[in-house]
C-alpha cells in the first residue's frame, strides 16, 4: 500500500513538473517578440522613417509605442521593442561593476541608447549621434535580428553581403550551428 501511494505521489509530481515546464515555455514564447524579414525604408530630412508594415504586423499591439535604439555591434543600429530591451538591461545591470571589461562594455553598449516612440504620423526619429555612428544617409534597410531590428545604411548592407561568399557563409553556419540548436535560453 505504501509503495502504491509513493507511485501516485511520483506521478502527481511528474505531472506538476511537466505542467510547469509547459507554462514556462508558453510564457517565454509570449514574452519574446521575434522578428523575420528585411525591409527598405527612407529617412526624411529630419532623420525619421516609418516602421515597415511587415514589422509592425509582427509586434503585439501594446508594443508598437515604445522602443530603445542604440549602437549595433557593427556599423548599424539596434532597435528593441521595450519588452525585449528590459530583460537585456536587467541582465546588464547585474554585471560586476568592478570588472573593467564590464564597464567598457556598458559604456559602449548603453551610452547613446535612448527610448523612442513613434510620432503621431508613426515615424521614428533616429537621434543625430546614432545616425552618424551608423553612417545612415537616406536609404536604409531594417533587418530582423531575432528579438530586435538592425538598421543599416542600404549601401553598407549591400556591401556586407556582396563581400561574403556562399562558401564563407556555409563555413560560418557550420561553425556556429555545429553544437546544435538549444531550446532553452
Strand-helix topology:
Layout: H1 2-31, E1 38-42, E2 48-50, H2 53-56, E3 67-71, E4 77-81, H3 82-93, H4 100-110, E5 114-116, E6 123-125, H5 128-134, E7 139-145, E8 148-153, H6 154-162, H7 166-177
Antiparallel strand pairs: 1-7, 2-6, 3-4, 3-5, 4-8, 7-8
Which structural class do you get from the secondary structure elements?
alpha+beta
Radius of gyration: 21 Å
The fold-level CATH name of the largest domain is: Chemotaxis protein chec
Helix and strand run? HEEHEEHHEEHEEHH
Q: What's the N-to-C terminus distance?
A: 42 Å
- CATH class value of the largest domain: Alpha Beta
| Average pLDDT, all residues | 82
* Helical segment count: 7
Mind explaining what this structure looks like?
By secondary structure, this protein is α+β, with helices and mostly antiparallel strands. The chain has 2 domains: 31 residues; 139 residues, Chemotaxis protein chec (3-Layer(aba) Sandwich), CATH 3.40.1550.20. 46% of the residues lie in helices and 20% in strands. The protein has 7 helices and 8 strands, in the order H-E-E-H-E-E-H-H-E-E-H-E-E-H-H. Strands 1-7-8-4-3-5 form a 6-stranded antiparallel sheet. Strands 2-6 form a two-stranded antiparallel sheet. About 9% of the residues have low confidence.
Features:
Chemotaxis protein chec, 46% helix, alpha+beta, 2 domains, 185 residues, 8 strands, two-stranded antiparallel sheet
